[in-house]
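#struct-help
A.M.: can someone run this one for me? Single chain, 238 residues.
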Amino acid sequence: MKHVRLYQNTSLKIENELTLDEYGSHHLIKVLRFSQGKSITLFNGDGFNYIAEVLSSKKICEVLIHSKEKNLSESKLNLTLAQGIAKGEKMDFLIQKAIELGVNKIVPIMSERCVVKLKGEKLTRRQLHWQRIVIGACEQSGRSVVPSVEIPITLNELLNQQTNNGFILHHRSKQTLLQADPLSEATILIGPEGGLSEVEITQATQVGYQSLLLGSRVLRTETASLVAIANMQLLWGN
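D.P.: on it. Structure tokens below:
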């Protein structure tokens, strides 16, 4: 069995005993059938791993934190993904893989060609659902910093914000990442299914986003996002 990592939204300190939250207790006791004395890793988003021993695994799971260590898995590239909202499981998949690839923040964007319409309580529920996917991806990929999924905003709202080193994918662009200067911080803007309209692309470039070409083929939104992230990490991150 691989070593288990669990997120706990609480303060973690060496030599402290801790009762895991409902999800963590259920996962260890009912799913993994963990027994007393085994070791797990906890994290709460502060960038450290906390090594803990299971003290009890009956109805609830209690652990004792023995040590902590700095998690060095974060990329040196601070990368924000501004992603046009894709349909259903496609957006879930995209968020999960973006986190595994080291993205620091995800901003869901409502643009002209978005099929998904979110507002009110439905919007709040979806944002919380995406944040849970982020936590699961951090547990799986070994990250101890938990990126945020922002409340969805419109493209105009995004473009009214100050953005450092913004890029926008455009299949007619002449610039590739190999021609860009190395960066420590960047934002990549990618449209939903159907892409961004020509008007939206023009609006983005007018406020400073650089158009970017990934290759000679037109990619689906979930493919384009992950290819762009992976290439940026290869060139400027880790």
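A.M.: thanks! The radius of gyration is 20 Å.
D.P.: also worth noting: The chain has two domains: 5-70, 78-236.
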